[in-house]
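note to self: dont lose this again. the chain is below, predicted strucutre after it. 278 aa total, dont forget to put it in the shared folder this time
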Amino acid sequence: MIKCRLCNLDFDRITTSHLRLKHNGRDLYDYQIEFPDAPTTSKESAARQSKSARDYQSSLSLEAKAELNRKNSEGLVAVWASRTPEEKAYISRQQSESMIVYCASRTPEETKEISRKFSRTMANRSPEEKADASRQISENRKKHWSSLSPEEQTEQIRRWQGDRGKTPNKCELMLWEFLEEVYPGMFIPDWKDKLNIGGRYPDFRSRNGSKIIIESFGSYHHSPVSDRPSEEELVEVYGKEGWTCLVVWADSADDIIFEWPNISKWIRGTIGGKPKCK
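---
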């Protein structure tokens, strides 16, 4: 249970209805502005909601899931478009800060278990479901990007800048092994030599003059609710700088192995034949 900071009563969740009826028409945004460190959902309630959502999603057909995601996306885009620039900045900042606090509170064992659960979930998906999830994520992020003003887009790109200060994950390492084996010396990863291109540090970039970029995306870190760029946004950003970008969707090293023939075919098609590597 959590306490409402306004009336000191215990609740599973602080709802908009409670705030409007009992506290002079406030909503959750007002509440979080007034009490930025106050939770609005108990851990027990969040767990129940998560299980209920998973159970409901698992009962739907692929077409029904796509329709549900479309409606949810349209609703979120409409709500976001109604916010003022100040509200958008505050909400984005709060989400980022909350995620940082949440990640810092997890033990290494909890983090590993979350990764294992996500990997098992993705492994059980069919290729069609993975493709549909990727398409939905891209569409949702594209809608969000188009709803931003030029100033908000510039600020978003600035926030993306320098967010790659980390060691490579298993997908990136597997992709790097393939690139070095088939195209030795042609590509360089960002953990070896960072280069700012349009406010971004690409995962892999060519260094033979062909101006090719390869980015590795995972469903967990590039979900519609994350503040990371979508596939279309990255292609657009890099395209303005004269670079051609391929986004590879992978949640495990096995996904990279499965996708490698397509990746290699794209590289050869983009450079027009056999690469000239250093």
